[in-house]
Design a protein that fits this description.
The protein contains 8 helices and 15 strands. The protein is of the alpha+beta class and 280 residues long. Bound molecules: N-oxalylglycine and manganese (II) ion. N-oxalylglycine (OGA) binds next to β14 and β15.
Length: 280
């Protein structure tokens, strides 16, 4: 079966022209993975997956992250919501998703991909934006590419979360700071031979650089990488399926009223390669 798709923006995002049965058949797995790493984001409309179907589809694409299974039927399921009653363990971190980020930059091997479906949508806000970190790298002048290659960046939870909640409590700040930091090359040399920026609000500082120069570099790269030409904006409809390549894109959600109860169901695929830089 040939995979039919249309581009959603010139440098990022493709919509699959498929049915739920096509997705669950397994026949398109290789083609969807290829499209995903080429286009950063892949969506399909009117799919209306159940949790079981979404999990089975995720498993067909890669190595499902299981996490700790709390309830029967919820294996691998993460409920993305700001409501701590719905997700007592993680809801308190999701406000940070309003700033441009990659998931799991604290891990040696960041997650490969995420598979998302909406369950409750907000009437206002709540669009999710994606930026292509491959395209942003490729668009840099050669001298800049050469300068960035070999730099290392420290990613921290407080760098990711404090700018999204400057009125946090001392206890919240201490909790974020208690998580381990992680150093990654700024430029990821993927197994495929392609390169992308490992850029995210979690990027605290460039190793060995004066803090002011480091902030200038990282903030400038963020402004570069999130220009309209590298971005796809997803307006959610019930029934959507969305997959992003977390190794080559950033994402953020636009603010929405917490009382909307906005909730997405997420399954995550484990990473398949550590972030490797120039000399590794
Ligand atoms: C996430 C995330 C964005 C959204 O699940 O990691 O950042 O639109 N979600 O809720
Ligand atoms: Mn996220």
């Amino acid at each position: 079966m040939a995979l039919q798709s249309v581009d959603l923006a010139p440098l990022i995002g493709s919509e699959l022209k498929v049915t739920k049965a096509d997705l669950l058949s397994g026949a398109l797995t290789g083609a969807i993975r290829d499209l995903l790493v080429r286009r950063g984001v892949v969506i399909a409309r009117d799919v209306h997956f159940t949790d079981e179907e979404q999990r089975a589809f995720a498993r067909s694409l890669g190595d499902l992250r299981l996490g700790t299974v709390k309830q029967e039927g919820e294996e691998g399921l993460m409920k993305v919501t700001f409501d701590e009653k719905v997700n007592p363990e993680y809801a308190k971190f999701f406000f940070g998703s309003q700033l441009w980020h990659m998931d799991g930059t604290y891990e040696e091997v960041p997650p490969f991909a995420t598979i998302l479906t909406p369950r409750v949508l907000s009437q206002t806000g709540g669009e999710t934006h994606f930026a292509n970190n491959y395209a942003a790298y490729e668009a840099l002048p050669d001298e800049e590419k050469a300068r960035l290659d070999g730099l290392k960046v420290v990613h921290t939870m407080q760098a990711a979360l404090f700018p999204a909640k400057r009125d946090c409590t001392v206890e919240e700040f201490a909790l974020w700071a208690s998580y381990p930091n992680r150093e990654h090359p700024l430029v990821w040399h993927h197994k495929s031979g392609r390169k992308s920026l490992v850029l995210s609000t979690s990027a605290s500082h460039v190793v060995g650089m004066h803090p002011a120069d480091s902030a200038y570099l990282l903030q400038g790269l963020m402004a570069h990488a999130t220009q309209d030409r590298f971005v796809y904006r997803h307006q959610w409809r019930m029934g959507d399926l969305l997959i992003w390549d977390n190794t080559g894109t950033m994402h953020r959600v636009l603010p929405f009223p917490p009382e909307s109860g906005r909730q997405l169901h997420r399954f995550t695929l484990n990473g398949e390669e550590p972030v490797r830089g120039l000399a590794a």
